[in-house]
Amino acid sequence: MTTEETAATAKPLPASSAASFSDGSVTTPAERKRAFQILFLCQLAGGMGQTLVYAVMPPIARRLGMSEFETTMIYSLSSFLWIVTSPFWGRRSDVVGRKPIMMIGLLAFAISTTIFATLVLVGLQGWIHVSLLFPMLLVARSIFGGLGSGNGSAAQAYVADRTTRSERASGVASLGAAFGIGTAIGPGVAAAFAVIHVVAPFYAVAILGFVSAGLIWVYLPERMRPTNRVSERQGRKTGLRWYDRRALPWVAISITLSFAQSIVMQLCAFYFIDMLHLKLDDATQMVSVGLMAMAIAALFAQIGLIQRFNLSIQWLLRWGAIITIFSFIGLIAGFSYGILVTALTLSGLGFGLLRPGLQAGASLSVSHRDQGAMAGFIAGTSATGMILTPFIFLNSFIEYNVYERMHQAPFIVGALLVAGILAFALFHPSMRDMQQSADDHEDEEEGIGIQ
């Protein structure tokens, strides 16, 4: 990347970090700039799509007569498919290239969001009973879970292809920053378009998804399939498995982090409504403010801190965990709107440090030829919390509904989970031995930075 690429929130890369190929071709600075701008837009769309759903859907669900459990189950089935298919798409990107997998994921996101919004609109008009609408919404969201899961893992692997090991943390953080901008403006988009109609935000981000897929198809540079490029030097194809000793610790941390983060994301809207006794008409606006503050804090962590100071993986995980624990304490003790918004802001800052630390640590734990597979494992397990949260805390089919009995209980669990991440960052051998940078010859052997 060149200096101008900071517009795409990525740290400038030296000229030697240009992607090179076995046919002697090299991605030009102009192509790299364009590529990271396109990836920026793609992650922006994904971030907007996530936070506006969490802000808009709970009030819609209550108008439709759907329970909290049914609402979160819509996300959970999609998340299950995301977990199952992400490793597959990650490995496929190692074989067929990053570009086609990203395009498939974006098209699935756009189509799924369009169908979902249309079904919600029909349901609000009373044309479909909720008993039929609920499974239809499940299917619509599942399109994104099954086919859209490749976008994130392929994008992360694309960046890993074009960064040296010493640049990896800031490189993957640049993707998180783009996603963070999307999550920051997502609630604002939801609030603005909701004035037109409650489903208008869904259609807006769907259009952005279609545009992003078109840009990937026409403009994203990619010369050769990654496996072909690397296997000529390595002599074998990717064979990484999730239970490999290099991958397993990071998979476990990814699951833990996903569970903790989903507690905040899935329950904060219901928590605001119940703790502050909000009217449903006011809930979207007030929850959107909290989610926007959370997203802006995450963006500050990823751009203002990580990109500026090139923080170590150990620092990111340790301080990210400490800040996030304090955010959960604020949610548990918060009985006013100001305290709850402050707690969400701390949560955004903490998770904004933890997620890039996890992604960079996982990326550095494997060789270049396994980047797609590892990115698929992390992308897949990052959705596990979306499944666990509703079943554990909101299941209305069991006698003991944890959230209804004690609204603070999920956040207590979240604090304990993040405490486990802190213990990992302080004491686990893989963290003590983790080096954010590597010798230059290691990058050269893997085909990074060779002109």
TrEMBL record:
Localization terms from the record: Membrane
Main location (coarse class): membrane
Region (Disordered): 1-24
Molecular function GO terms recorded: transmembrane transporter activity
Signal peptide: none
Keyword GTP-binding: no
GO cellular component, one term: membrane
Alphabetized UniProt keyword annotations: Membrane, Transmembrane, Transmembrane helix
Membrane topology: Multi-pass membrane protein
UniProt domain Major facilitator superfamily (MFS) profile: residue ranges: 35-432
Keyword Transmembrane (UniProt): yes
Any Pfam family hit: MFS_1
Stretches that traverse the bilayer: 38-60, 72-89, 101-121, 127-148, 169-196, 202-220, 247-273, 285-303, 315-331, 375-397, 409-427
PANTHER family reported in the protein's UniProt record: MEMBRANE PROTEIN, TRANSPORT PROTEIN
This protein's name: MFS transporter
Origin species: Parvibaculum sedimenti
